[in-house]
Write a structure and sequence with these properties.
Protein name: Succinyl-diaminopimelate desuccinylase
Helix content: 25-40%
Largest sheet: 8 strands, mixed
GO molecular function, one term: succinyl-diaminopimelate desuccinylase activity
Distance between the termini: 39 Å
Keywords: Hydrolase, Metal-binding
Structural class: alpha+beta
Order of helices and strands: HHEEEEEHEHEEEEHHEEEEEHEHEHEEH
Pfam families: M20_dimer (PF07687), Peptidase_M20 (PF01546)
Radius of gyration: 23 Å
Strand order of the largest sheet: 1-2-6-3-7-18-8-17
InterPro entries: Bact_exopeptidase_dim_dom (IPR036264), Peptidase_M20 (IPR002933), Peptidase_M20_dimer (IPR011650), Peptidase_M20A (IPR050072), Succinyl-DAP_deSuclase_DapE (IPR010174)
């Protein structure tokens, strides 16, 4: 969730940015797997999405049935058919950093129904993006108006998120009756999402020369109290509207020390709390502060969760159509996703996309070709029946 790049947050670019680099061509009418690989093979680590954003815009802007708007490196394409309802189908185009050596370009392992596409972004979440692009081009007259959203900066701090920027700059572009986020769900439906809260727990000490350690107080040693509380913590499983969300409280970083011969006067333990959507942000913060009472707790990043929303009539209709083709039943989304942003806008939303979410961000990230076809066909069926 970090990037060393400086994000491009310019807005309202209605034409491709001037660049000396040729725009990559995406074939939206060809083979879906080939399109998927082409989208993945354009590196787009958070903060460096311009090349892919240019390619997406260049592919969509010539389509007469779509109205295309660009905001920074986010592209929004809309139909205006006068339908009685509008669905927003969204996906982020950025990825976490590549491995060393890079896990791009993609490669195909296996054949036929067993084939998998390996490489960065194959799970999180360029499969969903490729499906969006293919359907945006082919569905010239869907049964409801559709807003296709391709946005940047999802894999970094929430205040940089491209969907959040669109909500601030152009909230009218995200208006709809229902939203689908193409995050990986192994071709199932995942409702809502956990919230996330990241804090720094600051442990004080007193500096001294390490040769006279008794003259100081070692903050790193004292941090064992924080770590003991985390080790003893038992995360809850909380049912919300029929789905059970598993919470989590974990140290994700620790920092301390001044020099090799100095007793440190501070140690900072970074803790990430994933909490069920039944909790508000203030509730989650209070819970964390209570756990670490006696220490200074500084909130560094926070985003609320989203309730499942599957009782909404449109969401229920979508679930019925999709699950009749894919099987299974709705499940909770344990990670945070931008369905929470749609929930804040009053738009019910679900997660639905190809790829096993357990493989997101892993070095061996890979997506079955079968997932890709299944999600494409289910969305196509729902938008045309």
């Amino acid at each position: 969730m970090t990037s060393d790049e400086t994000p491009d947050q310019s807005s309202d670019q209605t034409a491709p940015p001037v660049s000396s680099v040729p725009v990559i061509r995406l074939d939206l009418d060809g083979d879906l797997t080939a399109l998927f690989r082409a989208v993945c093979d354009v590196p787009s680590v958070s903060g460096d999405e311009r090349a892919l954003a240019d390619a997406v815009e260049a592919a969509l802007r010539p389509l007469a049935h779509l109205d295309v708007v660009r905001d920074g490196n986010a592209i929004v394409a809309r139909t205006h058919l006068g339908r009685s309802r509008r669905v927003v189908i969204a996906g982020h185009i950025d990825t976490v950093p590549l491995t060393d050596p890079p896990n791009l370009p993609t490669r195909v392992v296996g054949e036929g129904a067993q084939a998998e596409v390996w490489g960065r972004g194959t799970v999180d979440m360029k499969g969903g993006v490729a499906i969006q692009l293919a359907l945006a081009a082919s569905l010239t007259s869907p049964n409801q108006d559709v807003t296709w959203v391709f946005y940047d900066l999802e894999e970094v701090a929430s205040d940089l998120n491209g969907l959040g920027r669109l909500a601030r700059n152009h909230p009218e572009l995200l208006q709809g009756d229902f939203a689908i986020l193409g995050e990986p769900t192994a071709a199932g439906i995942e409702g809502g999402c956990n919230g996330t809260l990241r804090v720094e727990v600051r442990v004080p000490g007193v500096t001294a020369h390490s040769a006279r350690a008794w003259m100081g107080s070692n903050a790193i040693h004292s941090a064992s109290v924080v770590l003991d509380r985390l080790a003893a913590y038992e995360p809850a499983s909380i049912e919300v509207e029929g789905l059970v969300y598993r919470e989590g409280m974990n140290a994700v970083g620790i920092c301390g020390g001044i020099a090799g011969n100095v007793i440190p006067d501070e140690c900072v333990v970074t803790v990430n709390y994933r909490f069920a959507p039944s909790r508000s942000l203030p509730d989650a913060e209070a819970h964390v502060r209570d756990l670490f009472s006696g220490f200074e707790v500084v909130v560094t990043d926070a985003a609320p969760g989203a309730r499942p929303g599957l009782d909404d009539p449109i969401a229920a209709d979508f679930a019925e159509t999709v699950l009749s083709l894919t099987g299974g039943r709705p499940a909770p989304k344990y990670g945070w996703t931008d369905v929470a942003r749609f929930a804040e806008l009053g738009v019910p939303a679900v997660n639905f996309g190809p790829g096993d979410p357990l493989l997101a961000h892993k070095d061996d990230e890979r997506c079955p070709v079968g997932h890709l076809a299944l999600c494409h066909d289910a969305l196509h069926a729902w938008l045309t029946r």
